[in-house]
Amino acid sequence: MKQSVTNRATILGEYIKKNGATVRQTAGVFNVSKSTVHKDVTERLKTKNPVLYNDVKKVLEFNKNERHIRGGLATRRKYKGG
């Protein structure tokens, strides 16, 4: 069972790195919870694949820094009707 958790963490990390995806987007694609994705790529990946972890960390930091912009745009679309 440990093998599959490690394998999942690597697969999720590679997806985030390749697509610049958010935790929410990744969770939707792989049909797992956001908590699972976050734990896999921030804790498990750190010990199993440090190089991939650093790449994923950069993507997650970028997404975190940009989320207020995406949220504002979504709100704007909601109230503009488009």
Structure characterization notes:
The protein is mostly helical. It has one domain (2-80). It has 4 helices and no strands. The protein has helices at residues 2-19, 23-30, 34-48, 50-80. Helix 1 packs across helix 3 (34-48), helix 1 (2-19) packs across helix 4 and helix 2 (23-30) crosses helix 3 (34-48). The model has no long low-confidence stretch (mean pLDDT 88).
The tally of helices reads 4
State the share of residues found in helices, binned by percent: over 70%
Please summarize the sheet with the most strands. none
* Uncertain stretches of 5 or more adjacent residues: none
Shape: elongated
Q: Give the strand tally.
A: 0
Number of domains: 1
Summarize the helix and strand pattern as letters: HHHH
How would you describe the oligomerization state of the chains in this entry?
single chain
Q: How would you classify the helix and strand content by structural class?
A: mainly alpha
The N- and C-terminal alpha carbons lie at a distance of 46 Å
Report the average pLDDT across residues: 88
* Structural Rg: 14 Å
Question: Which band does the percent of strand residues land in?
Answer: under 5%
